[in-house]
Amino acid sequence: QPTECFLSQPEEKQESTVKTKRRKKKKISDILEKSAPKPGVPADLQNLLSQHFGENRSVIEIEELKLSDSCFLPANDLTHSFSSYLKEICPKWAKLRKNHKEKKSVVMLVICSSALRSLELIKSMTAFKGDCRVLKLFAKHIKIKEQMNMLEKGVFHIGVGTPGRVKALVEQDGLCLNSTKYMILDWNWRDQKLRRMMDIPEV
């Protein structure tokens, strides 16, 4: 009998800890739901870079990572559609598109957190892109070698993809960023867990 009593106690404790953990998770998502999306500002990216590299870089190296405000274009103030925003920040797109003849590179690189979001953005930029070629740069259902072959053989103007795959292509010399003029970060979009791209530790 005493052993039965002893066994029943830790079981109850386990149940109660599970319940409190679940409650905490709900609270985090509640906070995220209530927080309204704000347009991204250059300081957001600068802070993120210094936080990420702060521990393993010297003061001089961190200084070199700082980008001047002239590197940044105005952020989408959340009143624009994706196409109208791109038209505003890149009014000379037609000229840039015609002049771009380099293989293994893109003029505009759009980075977002998932393959599905990449497809969404490709669809929503039809009014802007005209007849230029867009390349999907994500891992879902597309092998990295296929993407490398496409970049080597053809000329692409816009690349839309996820950080992991873009990084892998750059590291394997499949994508060259020398002729990239614009880099757009899909900063405010949230996934099913209400995380922005910058809230994902791997990114």
TrEMBL record:
One GO CC term on file: 90S preribosome
UniProt protein name: Protein CMSS1
Pfam families per UniProt: CMS1
InterPro entries: Cms1 (IPR032704), P-loop_NTPase (IPR027417)
Disordered, as annotated region: 1-39
